[in-house]
Amino acid sequence: MIPAPSSFTSLGEHLRDNHYEPKTLGLALLSYLNFPENQPSNATDSIGLDDIDELHHKWQYREIITQFIQILEPFVENPEDWET
Known about the structure:
The protein has 84 residues and is mainly alpha-helical. Helix content is 52%, strand content 0%. It contains three helices and no strands. It is elongated, with a radius of gyration of 16 Å. The mean pLDDT is 83.
């Protein structure tokens, strides 16, 4: 995860100023990642190139969301509450 540049304003403060609570947003994103259709695949059969591209796309998308959750963690009083 890349940290925000030092000249950037606080993301947590910006979210709160715009009536978004970082904890609520983080919980919603975690819930989204936990949907069965949003889980990583357990491919045990042979797969083709198109399947590999799709698996990589899914992994990248999940990784972006996971990194955004990590960005929110410093603005949450008890991020361990996110653990399910």
